[in-house]
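Friendly challenge for the regulars: who can give me the structure tokens for this chain first? No prize, just bragging rights.
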Amino acid sequence: MIGGEFLAMARRTIEETDAAYAKQNALPSIQAARPTIGGYVSLAAGNLWATLSEYHKRLPEVEMHT
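First reply, four minutes later:
Bragging rights claimed.
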């Protein structure tokens, strides 16, 4: 997979996660969940950390554990 393709897929994943998070927040009676993201070690050498960093900037209230 070419880096640009991975970045596009990662951005779509973040957008979908943001949408799911917003939908979850719209339902206050539902207890908050902790999203879990898995990945291959080889992906960590690419843009994974930059993607997770951007996600944390956008949603700092979401706990992230690696």
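Residues 3-25 form the longest helix (23 residues). Residues 3-28+38-58 form one domain. Your move, everyone else.
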